[in-house]
C-alpha cells in the first residue's frame, strides 16, 4: 500500500469520523498561523495572520488518568490529516475558543507525513 493511498484513507476516515461525531451546526476547526516581518530585537514589525480550514480534523479528550506532568485537565487532542502542517506554538480556533498547540506528533512511517496529532491547551 503506497503512502498516497494511506493518506487518502486517513482523510476519508477523519472526514467520516467528523461527520458521525459532529452535526451540521458544529463549529469548524481552523489553524491560525502568525508571521512577523521586519522589526528588530525590541519588537515592531508587521504581523500577518493566515487562517486555514482543517476540514479533516477532530478533537478528542484525554483520559483523566493521564493528567499530570505535561497533560493538564482541559487539554484536548487534535487529530488531522497531512494537508496542513501543524507546529508547536500554532493557534487552533474552533468557534469562539482558541487553543495553543503545546506538542505535536507527526505520524510519518516514511518521509511522507500521514497525519498530525497535537496536544492543545485553551488560550
Quick overview of this protein structure:
The chain is α+β, with helices and mostly antiparallel strands. The chain is built from one helix and seven strands. It has a seven-stranded antiparallel β-sheet with strand order 2-1-5-6-7-4-3.
Structural features:
about 120 residues; alpha+beta; single chain
Give an overview of the whole structure.
The chain is α+β, with helices and mostly antiparallel strands and 123 residues long. The chain has one domain: Thrombin, subunit H (Beta Barrel). 15% of the residues lie in helices and 41% in strands. The chain is built from 1 helix and 7 strands; from the N terminus they run H-E-E-E-E-E-E-E. The protein has one helix spanning 3-21; strands at 29-37, 46-53, 57-61, 76-81, 91-94, 97-107, 115-122. It has a 7-stranded antiparallel beta sheet with strand order 2-1-5-6-7-4-3. Strand 6 (97-107) and strand 7 form a beta hairpin.
Would you spell out the secondary-structure blueprint of this structure?
Blueprint: H1 3-21, E1 29-37, E2 46-53, E3 57-61, E4 76-81, E5 91-94, E6 97-107, E7 115-122
Antiparallel strand pairs: 1-2, 1-5, 3-4, 4-7, 5-6, 6-7
Amino acid at each position: 500500500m503506497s503512502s498516497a493511498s494511506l493518506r487518502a484513507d486517513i482523510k476519508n476516515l477523519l472526514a467520516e469520523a467528523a461527520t458521525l461525531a459532529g452535526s451540521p451546526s458544529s463549529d469548524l476547526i481552523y489553524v491560525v498561523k502568525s508571521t512577523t516581518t521586519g522589526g528588530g530585537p525590541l519588537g515592531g514589525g508587521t504581523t500577518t495572520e493566515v487562517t486555514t480550514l482543517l476540514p479533516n480534523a477532530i478533537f478528542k479528550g484525554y483520559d483523566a488518568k493521564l493528567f499530570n506532568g505535561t497533560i493538564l485537565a482541559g487539554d484536548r487532542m487534535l487529530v488531522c490529516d497531512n494537508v496542513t502542517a501543524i507546529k508547536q506554538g500554532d493557534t487552533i480556533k474552533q468557534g469562539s475558543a482558541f487553543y495553543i498547540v503545546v506538542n505535536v506528533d507527526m505520524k510519518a512511517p516514511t518521509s511522507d507525513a500521514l497525519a498530525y496529532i497535537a496536544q492543545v491547551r485553551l488560550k
